[in-house]
Write a structure and sequence with these properties.
Number of domains of chain A: 1
Distance between the termini of chain A: 20 Å
CATH class of chain A: Mainly Alpha
Order of helices and strands of chain A: HHHHEEHHHHHHHHHHH
Structural class of chain A: mainly alpha
Oligomer: homodimer
Strand order of the largest sheet of chain A: 1-2
Strand content of chain A: under 5%
CATH architecture of chain A: Orthogonal Bundle
Largest sheet of chain A: 2 strands, antiparallel
């Protein structure tokens, strides 16, 4: 099956899993659960949980056994989108083709829903550790990996430096890479490692998956920035052209579209190389990398 | 030693532990770490970690072995204060005698610092689970307990209903209890249970500690509301009289100060009763309960 078709099929399957693993509709307090479900469901490429499940398969594991952890990573991603969109941060009005959570529910509920999603993710990872029979050190390592990816050395740090440098005229290339490796890369790395970690993958396998995902995450972000500069709002489902307008520092605004395309291709190649010598079960991961460089939405 | 003196001595000791277990000053990104430290250090009664360590002692454990988990609970508390104080929530200007985090660092940095503190707490609990040699199920239970206390069925849910009902003319007593047991009670319960859970306390011990802390948390909150109505800003270190002004529903605004005093005393008695038959090692927990009813700041 063509990878774009396959990703679309898996996206639909993941969407239904994401629904099933959330608190149900109508649960008290209703409005906060509505906001949680609004923020997590109904859109997105769902690339992170698809990578999680493909990574579990690539190390010889059963993808179905790590579904909660795969969903957890996507919930964390959704949490970060809600926070990034807030008026005090990127002040975005549209996300995934609908009003951002704070526009639909108000700022306070958006912040609370985001944190509830984050907490739900940790609960699922802990539970998943038990269902796969992981020992204490492994469960602790999984929790630490997720917490570190989100915290001040991860996504929070990246978002902070991103906001801080928006007001500056220029940015050092290493600061830009810091932002992108934390804001996007860190969670890609967790996507690829968390399930295999719980399922008992070797240190060597985990290192290769981390290297794969680190490069993939940077490539993905660069393509995102190219799409922001060149895409249409209809195709992407969120505000576009915002990076230049808000003086945001991206690979594209710093190095230009041409150089950005070249860098994305190189990073995708590096992601694929990290899996050199891996069996056929890693093919989906390889194809995802190639797809990420060529996507148009 | 008189319990007020003892709490003061322990508070100073906890303050230095809280400092030690945070990311150090000057760590990149500096400003976010500054905001984290500003939000977590330099004030507060530190009752939650003191309860954690007293609870560890009460079940025959070594309080020093669960210091990271005890600090984690306080970091979560500080995270919740930063979020509660935001302009979109309680819009508070002072906390612990100094400007609230968003007034000192801006709203975006406050939100990010709060989430970073939360993530740091999860990392510490996971690490602490390993250092005390807890098995997978125990570490997972500790993480789930903390995540549930914070998430949509815990503090987030309580804060949401609190904000939602602020605009209403009246509130049902059970809704008020829902808010207070989630906003304050949930984390008190975690304070008393998390360390003992990691250190291998029995289900029965954990249930009694939960009952103790649930009642203590409600009593503590009621006394807080009495102090808001009657205290002075200098003594308490935060804005006072805000509950009535903002039409906030508290035990005091709903039932009056007299009834509130009676309810607090009853709850403190229930907290103490939960430890009936416990050895002398539980004395500090009992004294903390009594102290909470009589505190004036």
């Amino acid at each position: 099956m063509d990878i774009a078709c396959r990703l679309d099929t898996e996206r639909a399957a993941v969407e239904s899993l994401l629904d099933r693993w959330l608190p149900p509709e109508g649960e008290f307090p209703e409005r906060i659960h509505e906001a949680i479900r609004y923020s997590a469901l109904g859109g997105g490429k769902r690339l992170r949980p698809i990578i999680s499940m493909a990574a579990a398969r690539a190390v010889g594991g059963d993808p179905d056994s790590i579904v909660p952890a795969a969903c957890a990573v996507e919930y964390v991603h959704c949490c970060s989108l809600v926070l990034d969109d807030l008026p005090s941060m990127d002040d975005a009005s549209m996300r995934r083709g609908k009003p951002t959570t704070h526009r639909a529910f108000g700022v306070a509920t958006a912040i609370l829903a985001a944190d509830a999603l984050l907490m739900h993710a940790f609960k699922l990872v802990a539970e998943n550790g038990v269902t796969v029979g992981a020992d204490g050190e492994t469960i602790a390592a999984a929790i630490k990996e997720l917490a570190t990816a989100v915290g001040s050395y991860g996504m929070v740090g990246g978002q902070h430096v991103d906001l801080e440098t928006a007001a500056q005229v220029s940015i050092a290339p290493e600061t830009l890479e810091y932002i992108q490796s934390r804001k996007t890369g860190a969670l890609f790395v967790v996507s690829a490692r968390l399930g295999p970690l719980l399922a008992g993958a070797s240190t060597r396998q985990l290192a290769a998956l981390g290297e794969y995902a680190r490069n993939l995450g940077l490539a993905y972000q660069i393509v995102d920035d190219i799409l922001d500069a060149e895409g249409t709002e209809e195709a992407i489902g969120k505000d576009i052209g915002r990076d230049a307008a808000s003086h945001k520092k991206t690979f594209v605004t710093v190095h230009g579209v041409e150089k950005a395309r070249g860098a994305a291709l190189e990073l995708v190649q590096a992601a694929r190389s990290a899996l050199d010598g891996w069996p056929d079960e890693a093919d989906v991961l390889r194809k995802i990398a190639t797809y990420c460089a060529s996507r148009t939405a």
